[in-house]
Amino acid sequence: MSLSRKRKRELKKLKSYAEDVLHDQKIVLDRAKDVLLEAGVQAKHLSDEYVAPRVNDACENVRPTVERGIRSAKQAANSVRRTAAPAVTAALITAVNALDAADNPGARRASESIVRLGTKTGFPVKQQKKKKRSAGGVIALILGAVAAVGVAAALWQTFRADDELWIAAEDAE
């Protein structure tokens, strides 16, 4: 397809207009970029001068209330921990001892898993071992029984009905 000279000239002129418009747009966009950069700098200055001090003052006014709330929440958590820990530990120990008492392999596995759970959650469960009586404990038990019998005999002798002091007190009335 061949174009006439007139059309070629018009297209060439249109092309130069388009290039001029593109050049002008680049200049406008560069100026807009410079304006936006300067606006950002000015916004930062205004923020530093006016907004930041107001935000800091507001934070300083709110800080005591927030700190008081945090302190009371920590105290509540500590009191719950203090009251709940012994109960949880006692329940775990009871469960472990009951499972240990059963001669069942399944119960033994459950006991071991409870001990692991207690250790993992911060409530260490120490299994109570069956206490063996030693010779000293047996001797102390026997001596305690003998002492109790001696006290009972002394009381019997003191409050016997045929005692003269008691009879004399009854006659005087």
TrEMBL record:
Keyword Transmembrane part of the UniProt annotation: yes
Transmembrane helix is among the record's keywords: yes
TM ranges: 135-156
Protein origin, superkingdom: Bacteria
UniProt keywords, alphabetically: Membrane, Transmembrane, Transmembrane helix
Protein's name in the database: DNA helicase
Native source organism of the sequence: Klugiella xanthotipulae
